[in-house]
Amino acid sequence: MHRHHIGIDVGSASITYAVVDTAAGRPTGPVRKVPTPDPASPVAVAEVLWALVEALSAEPRAPHPEASVGVALPAIIRHGVARSAAHIDDAWIGLDVGRFLTDRLGRAVHVINDADAAGLAEAHYGAGRGEAGRAVTGTVLVITLGAGIGSALIVDGRLVPNLELGHLEIDGAAAEVLASAAARERQGLDWPAYAERLQRYLSHLEFLFSPDLIVVGGGICVDHEQFLPRLRLGTPVVPAGLRDAAGVIGAARHAYLALPPLG
Ligand code: BGC
To answer: Cα of 255 to ligand 1 centre, how many Å?
Structure first.
């Protein structure tokens, strides 16, 4: 088992990546970004990933060449196969992404939904971390606010994968159409108006799941003081501790823990 893994988080606008020390749950160097190709087809994204993995591997203190790579995608991922594609090309749907990227990159790649990656990272190393570095006991709901809304449910440190709570219908529309960071910008909402949207959404999630903790992540969290204090919930709500590195750290952790691919 290797301790250092490359973690990559493919977003609609940028691809974030870093070498991660999976024991510490921290990047070993800078967290970098490159633009996501447009269209974000599997072939175009794989080319970018290949180039950045090559570049990282040539750096001093690169991970072992046989250490697997973790990739987070905005897609439902069932046993390595994408079952949806949000804000990336539809050509991902039905693709065995793990196998495809393993072929293209020439090293073992393990794939995970982006919010699941962020959730795992927050639960084990970030805002959902309990005493002695363990995940908080109980039910932790991690919600990421970006181009869409991502969600992860972690129960006693274990992930319930592929929850798509951004697509939960609220007042006749998908929650992410009403309350994502992109929706705030698109609709020109000020912070109090945006906080009202989140209040409606998160109070519904609170009613459905009775979580012990809600962690809110996504790039918008640099401004968390503008909207989190306005929420009135019975559950503690905290900003993500790992900021925009959560996806990368969770992807690397997923690679560290995953079994070697078959075949
Ligand atoms: C997708 C999820 C993804 C989330 C955040 C949603 O639109 O359906 O799979 O985790 O966006 O990127």
So the answer is: 20
- What is the reported pTM? 0.96
Exposure on the CB side of residue 205, measured as CA atoms within 13 A: 32
- The set of residues, in sequence order, having a beta carbon less than 8 Å from that of 235 and lying 6+ positions away, is 206, 211, 212, 213, 214
Rounded Cα distance, 249 and 256, in Å: 11
Residue type, 157: G
- Rounded to the nearest 5 degrees, what angle is found at the Cα of 76, between the Cα atoms of 151 and 86? 80
Measured in Å, residue 111 CA sits from the centre of ligand 1 at 14
Backbone torsion region of residue 92, taken as left when φ is above 0, otherwise alpha when ψ lies between -120 and 50, otherwise beta: alpha
As a whole number of angstroms, the distance between CA 231 and CA 75 comes to 29
Rounded to the nearest whole angstrom, what is the distance from the C-alpha of residue 114 to the centroid of ligand 1? 7
Among 116, 149, 216, name the best residue to mutate to test ligand 1's pocket (greatest count of ligand atoms within 8 A of Cβ): 149
137-194 per-position pLDDT tens digit: 899 999 999 999 999 999 999 999 999 999 999 999 999 999 999 999 999 999 999 9
Does ligand 1 have an atom closer than 6 angstroms to the CB of 150? yes
Q: Which two tokens stand for residue 53?
A: 């993995």
**Token code pair at residue 188:** 């020109």
Instruction: Verify whether ligand 1 is closer than 6 Å to residue 115 (CB atom).
Output: yes
Q: What is the distance between the alpha carbons of residues 237 and 122, in angstroms, rounded to a whole number? A: 13
Query: Which ligand 1 atom sits closest to the C-alpha of 113?
Result: 10
Distances 80 to 44, 71, 142, 233 between C-alpha atoms, Å: 19, 11, 22, 36
Digit-coded pLDDT (tens) for 33-83: 999 999 999 999 999 999 999 999 999 889 999 999 999 999 999 999 999
